[in-house]
Design brief:
alpha+beta, five-stranded antiparallel beta sheet
């Protein structure tokens, strides 16, 4: 169910798709377009993605999350297109037997999405300017050192 969506994301559909009477914990993360970023007033954001690659990576992250955190369900959906301030751009829904696993799994899934999924954002500002935003590095400084690539 990992998906890139061209329209609004239905939280109700995600909750229904992950219903599980064995789970005592449900964590939902929703990312929204905020009005200010780095001291600038945001008018809107245009998200774009390499659809097939992004969906493949989202599905990989969902599977990793289930394996690493003993979660029973993990669903990630990210929206593309023009979004206004306040619009939901991403949902992560995680269900697990216990809350600890659910919280850890949700955080992992959202951070992995931000670092690994081929999604780009272009912000427009109230002064008429705009900018493509830098993403997160694909490999953290700590991971680079462990792999022998140094800083």
């Amino acid at each position: 169910m990992a998906a890139i969506s061209n329209g609004s994301i239905s939280l109700d559909a995600l909750l229904t798709a992950t219903e599980d009477a064995e789970c005592g914990a449900l964590v939902v993360f929703g990312g929204t377009v905020r009005r200010h970023n780095h001291g600038r007033e945001v008018v809107d954001i245009a998200y774009s993605a390499h659809g097939p690659l992004a969906e493949k990576t989202l599905a990989e992250i969902e599977a990793e999350t289930l394996e690493k955190f003993d979660a029973r369900h993990c669903r990630l959906v990210h929206r593309v297109g023009e979004l206004a301030v306040g619009d939901v751009s991403v949902y992560a829904v995680v269900r697990a037997v216990h809350r600890g696993e659910a919280f850890e799994a949700a955080r992992y899934a959202v951070e992995a999405l931000k670092h690994r999924v081929a999604i780009w954002k272009h912000e427009r500002y109230s002064d008429g300017s705009s900018a493509h935003l830098e993403g997160c590095s694909l490999v953290s400084h700590h991971e680079a050192e462990e792999q022998g690539h140094g800083a």
